[in-house]
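Interim report, section 4.2 (structural modelling).
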Amino acid sequence: MARVKKIMLTDAPTLKKEAKIKEAAKSLAHSESGCVVIVEDKKAVGIVTETDLVKCLVSKESSLKEPVSKIMTSPVTFMTPSMKLDEALKIIDTKKFKKYPVIENDKLVGIAYKKDVVQAVSDNVKMHRNIQNLILVLFVLFEFFFMFYEYLFPIFAFFGV
Amino acid sequence: MIRVKSIMTRNVISVPLSSSLKEAANLMLSKSVSCLLIVDENKPVGVLSESNIIKGAVAKKAKVKDIMSRNFIVISPKTKFSEISKALRERKIKIFPVIENGSLAGLVAETDIIQATRDFTRFHQIFQEIILSVFGLATAFFLFYFSPIFR
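Predicted structure of the assembly:
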């Protein structure tokens, strides 16, 4: 089974807790990642996604000059690079988020996406199915051999075995 | 086999081409979707995702027309799921309007595809375990029943 390390995006955009919402918007507009991780001393303390920012743009109360900590989701649900994809999928099934910061020894190392995890597990299952089909064919051949064992004696005799 | 018909969203949330950025963003939030379809005379002409809205807001544009992307593929209810999944993976197309008999019948978004893949995987895992255990038991039975030792 592959691990989270293999599918995560390593260059996650980060911002400090004191940064303005405007900076978050700029950093989201220039990257394809879809979220900004908010860090404090290299520790991930929150996450700002595109949905949070759209909410902020629409509402009149919060302006773009306020600190980013006002709209971030905190605390974050995170994964570790050594986590197996099965475990990651369990987290995804219970939490319903789309993006998860990957944290190793309290340091941010990347972002894991729901779609990548689901797709990797799906590919893995497909590969397993092919291996299983091969095993099943071997089983069936084995069964037939035992069923018609006696009828093979003349053939053995013909070849002088 | 996953069918497009079973995973598509039937009531499509769409905005006209002439609407403003703010209207679109409001609609997106109130319906809690991450992607809108832009229609012109009941025909899909573009898509608008959250990232498009943010890019538009940063570039200070106000009309949907200026910020929408045309990155979508029109499909029919008979399109194979594997084709859509491949387009999502390789061409990063996230939204697929479904056209049936010349009119818009539904929409398949990225989340629908991911959810369908997830459910299908779960079903497959259970199915595989059942088949393997049945065949394993059958093989064990055959081994003993037809074994020459017990004749």
